[in-house]
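Appendix B. One record, verbatim.
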Amino acid sequence: MAQAQEIRVLCFGASITAGWYNSGLQRHPYAIRLKDRLRKALPSYNVEVDIDGQSGDRVVGGEYLSRLEPYFNVIGGKKGKIDWLVFQAGGNDLLSGEEPAAICEAMKKLWQISLQGSTKVMALTVTDTEDQRPETRESYTKLNEMIKSYQQEGFFVADVFSKIRYSEMSEEMRKIVWDDGLHFKPAGYDMMGDVVADRLLEVLKAAWIP
């Protein structure tokens, strides 16, 4: 019997990628739903989804770089070939007062490292927050627009910000989806996994179907 083809996905980011909730005492990463969706949609493939999420990490200052480089600093990466890097960053940088342009420039360097080989990148927009102050909205919008406007072969975007909006949910729904106004509860992380899965499957099917 022929060995099943493998698709290896690495979900890379900070606390939201780690699935942080209940003050960090519990985890429910969006990768759980993502893996389930991919395995059901691609039964002839061996789908593996790994998680590398570190709470508080920022792209400006090199914290992401020191974690990402080991995956790509030798042919195939020290930790094995990665077909898709699902990448989210920027939220902690915005909270630290960094400018969207500086954050995006730091992201681009990481994306370019990842795209040097056969890995493709699915960048996620920064997820929404309960902070609806105009200056916060402006910084989030600027950074997310920069992420969505970036173009390079093998680079794609899943817009989780527009799909899971705090401001557009009822108070009842917010209690189900959001944990602390920044992180999600398991239901919110599952919604995020669905957004990523929908986009990734859309790209894969477009590549496979003439």
